[in-house]
Fold:
Amino acid sequence: MSSVQPMPADSIASQRDAFIEQFLQFGSGTFNMFSIYIGDRLGLYRALAESGPATSAELASRTGTHERYIREWLEHQTVAGILEVEDENQAAESRRFRLPAGHAEPLIDSNSLNYIVPIAQMIAGAVRPMPSLLEAYRNGGGVPFDEYGTDLREGQAAINYPAFMYQLPAEWLPALPDVHARLQSDPTARVADIGCGYGWSSIGMAKGYPTIHVDGFDLDAPSIEQAQENAKRNGVADRVDFQVRDAGDPSLVGQYDLVTAFECVHDMTNPVGALRTMRGLVKDGGVVLIVDERVGDVFTAKGNDVEWMMYGWSILHCLPVGMDDHNAVGTGTVMRADTLRQYAKDAGFSNVEILPIEHFFFRFYRLTA
Ligand SMILES: C[S@@+](CC[C@H](N)C(=O)[O-])C[C@H]1O[C@@H](n2cnc3c(N)ncnc32)[C@H](O)[C@@H]1O
Structure:
């Protein structure tokens, strides 16, 4: 028999009321996210930042949008605390709205490490296959990555772009002195970048180390097509190749000095197979570097802000894509260090070291063959 005492009725009522209040905040927060998606995709924030405060008609004309929708959106943004109104007492059509100075970098500066607006695009992508998601929850199947569409791919690429282009070559790789030295020495160092998405990690490494050659691999054909385009535009197409390949494909062979996998092992249906391939790809003395989510070592009810968000990605995207195969292990975004250690051991690695690199979202693992 349970020893838990029943709650008094007034405590239940205050718990109920607190939950209703919290629930309504969740609702408004969700609307905020989709309103940010609209502002980002239609260039509304950028137009306010670049051409200054605007009435609804001015902003509509600057962005090729419809005044009535823009007026509603501007008022919503103001009530939500995302934009400011110059004089709320003016007639609706005459009110001018502005982007607060401190909100510009997170919303429009795509080179900044503080650029977080792609999260809204990723969330819009993550809910796109909702009917398939519900079906997967019922029958235990998965949801193909492709069903999440361009928003998920683009948002993912954009959120990691600044870190991959700037921190990866300037801070993360130099934190591994042997790798840093090898990438700068002769003969040409070769890098394999597994699950490379739009290729920014491969391109960032190639730009930071001007003699290396990088091969990027990803299962998703539209991502590889975009990665090839990105390499061309960034002038590294002669040293960066991209191929559609399954990381678990045992025929994927090579002799690489560095093998990397950024934010993708937890998405794989067969992470042990992929890690085994990675072990086979790395030369004697080479390094395998896995960068994945900075989650806690064990589940705790309280969690933390990072884990709260990671569970959100997991329930909508990472777990369903990681379940999309009849033999899938179903890791989910919250891949704890012990889970990766076990996968690495099963793949034949002898050691997993967590590197002392500080990052809000990422944890860095160096695997020894
Ligand atoms: C969350 S995205 C990360 C993309 C990129 N590395 C980044 O950090 O922006 C995960 C990527 O892993 C790829 N992926 C999943 N399973 C894969 C597999 N078995 N082989 C190769 N790529 C895979 C997906 O197609 C997707 O592009």
In short: The first strand starts at residue 84 and ends at 85.
